[in-house]
Amino acid sequence: MPSLGRLHLITDTRPGRDPLAVVRAALSAARAELVVQVRVEDSATDREAYDLARRVLALCTSYGASCLVNDRLHVALAVGAAGGHVGADDLPVAAARRVLGPTGVLGATARAPGTAGEAVAAGASYLGVGPCHTTSTKTGLPDPIGPAGVRAVVDAVDVPVIAIGGVTAARVPALRAAGAYGVAVVGAVSAAADPALATAALIEALTC
Ligand SMILES: Cc1ncc(COP(=O)(O)OP(=O)(O)O)c(N)n1
Ligand SMILES: Cc1ncsc1CCOP(=O)(O)O
Ligand SMILES: [Mg+2]
């Protein structure tokens, strides 16, 4: 399995956004270091998810970057993505592992050491841990766990921890100091005036 990239860009497909333009800009800055996770609204059809994932994967492939699909593992398999990401409302991790097979990249959401350990035992190859900070991109989330919460999970598992939720370049050093392998972002890139510049700043912060 190729090593996991440290910067995960999650697509923002809310109305009025242009996820492909953002992915193009981010790839131009991060190139093979980027992981793009295709995430669509729950209301999107499988056909819409498939069409976006196919386009994102083609862009990623041209830069040697990886593409994952959130929630809809059948879409990940259908387009030939590297893997997928599941959380509490999705397939259980063990079932997701069976769907993706032994070599697929499988991310699982966790915010506490206990559930993190269970996810790894069930087959997760990385963990998305958060929300680390307040986010305006997703509603209904529990309180942020901060870098200390990230550290607690990092100490409990032996897979890469990807910190998520309100991550900005300025917040990366504290998350890395807490042991995060990398970060996942929506707004820090998608809402930036210059998504390529914002991506470059995140990569710079991750490589310091
Ligand atoms: C890297 C990463 N971490 C966490 C999540 C959140 O997944 P989930 O809890 O299933 O919530 P949705 O994204 O499906 O709304 C993620 N997607 N990626
Ligand atoms: C999908 C998801 N899960 C936890 S926070 C989040 C969204 C993160 O978005 P942002 O980087 O804009 O805070
Ligand atoms: Mg999910």
UniProtKB/TrEMBL annotation:
Pfam families: TMP-TENI. InterPro entries: Aldolase_TIM, ThiamineP_synth_sf, ThiamineP_synth_TenI, TMP_synthase. Its cofactor is Mg(2+). Pathway: Cofactor biosynthesis; thiamine diphosphate biosynthesis; thiamine phosphate from 4-amino-2-methyl-5-diphosphomethylpyrimidine and 4-methyl-5-(2-phosphoethyl)-thiazole: step 1/1. One of its GO terms (molecular function) is thiamine-phosphate diphosphorylase activity. Keywords: Magnesium, Metal-binding, Thiamine biosynthesis, Transferase. 4-amino-2-methyl-5-(diphosphooxymethyl)pyrimidine binds at Q37, V38, R39, V40, E41, N70, T109, K138. It is an enzyme of class 2 (transferase). 2-[(2R,5Z)-2-carboxy-4-methylthiazol-5(2H)-ylidene]ethyl phosphate binds at T135, S136, T137, G166. The keyword Metal-binding applies. It catalyses: 4-methyl-5-(2-phosphooxyethyl)-thiazole + 4-amino-2-methyl-5-(diphosphooxymethyl)pyrimidine + H(+) = thiamine phosphate + diphosphate; 2-[(2R,5Z)-2-carboxy-4-methylthiazol-5(2H)-ylidene]ethyl phosphate + 4-amino-2-methyl-5-(diphosphooxymethyl)pyrimidine + 2 H(+) = thiamine phosphate + CO2 + diphosphate; 2-(2-carboxy-4-methylthiazol-5-yl)ethyl phosphate + 4-amino-2-methyl-5-(diphosphooxymethyl)pyrimidine + 2 H(+) = thiamine phosphate + CO2 + diphosphate. The keyword Magnesium applies. Binds 1 Mg(2+) ion per subunit. Transmembrane segments: none annotated. Residues 7-189 form the Thiamine phosphate synthase/TenI domain. Mg(2+) binds at D71, D90. Its EC number is 2.5.1.3. It comes from the Bacteria. NCBIfam families: thiE (TIGR00693). Belongs to the thiamine-phosphate synthase family. Condenses 4-methyl-5-(beta-hydroxyethyl)thiazole monophosphate (THZ-P) and 2-methyl-4-amino-5-hydroxymethyl pyrimidine pyrophosphate (HMP-PP) to form thiamine monophosphate (TMP). HAMAP family: TMP_synthase (MF_00097). This is Thiamine-phosphate synthase. It comes from Micromonospora parva. The gene is thiE.
